[in-house]
């Protein structure tokens, strides 16, 4: 049987969760990184597999699946040698894992995307303080969760899919906005513990989170260039009359830029 094909990008937390899960259960993936900027997620072939045009998507010998949380549950239930990562019969533990998967998607990743998408694709030069504050609120929630857990991991005494999924977005958020050790000792100890115990964590999580940080810093510098300032000046009608820019052309350009933003914004779940 051919390896499961994973379509993803290197830096997306969602795709990294699938890669980490595969490593944990010992299955091989044929990883194919696609270029969202080139709209490789909008091809006819890709849309047949995933009409949501998100990443990651997997193709398990003709069976396409999308959404990282659905994928990692599927992989464990079908291919894992035991149910440690996602218990089949312990419904309470399973429900608690599901809750943390929703936390990763609705809180951690949502905040990450809220911050990165405008910088990567909209030309934003600064991150509003309210967005940074929202990251710290997420750390507050996770610190409280770890305290309530009373164990080394989010749900029980061993690594589960909750830890795999949460670790990906958390690792990237912490690279961009480091958690204060005095406020979030449990969060930082948790990340360190995962790095030491989860196979290939450094390669798949830490290194790629640092890649995201590097790209983030590059984008902020790029958008601060005179070229971007000129574009922003056009949008807000601040060019002098010698530029030949009219109110009509400004409005048209603004519409074109907004349209481009919608087309280029990545979708990663």
From TrEMBL:
It is an enzyme of class 2 (transferase). It catalyses: RX + glutathione = an S-substituted glutathione + a halide anion + H(+). Pfam families: GST_C_3, GST_N. Its EC number is 2.5.1.18. Transmembrane segments: none annotated. Residues 90-213 form the GST C-terminal domain. GO terms for molecular function: glutathione transferase activity. One of its GO terms (biological process) is glutathione metabolic process. PROSITE patterns: GST_CTER, GST_NTER. Residues 2-83 form the GST N-terminal domain. SUPFAM superfamilies: GST C-terminal domain-like (SSF47616), Thioredoxin-like (SSF52833). Keywords: Transferase. The keyword Transferase applies. Belongs to the GST superfamily. Theta family. Homodimer. PANTHER family: GLUTATHIONE S TRANSFERASE D10, ISOFORM A-RELATED, GLUTATHIONE S TRANSFERASE E11, ISOFORM A-RELATED. This is glutathione transferase. It comes from Anopheles melas.
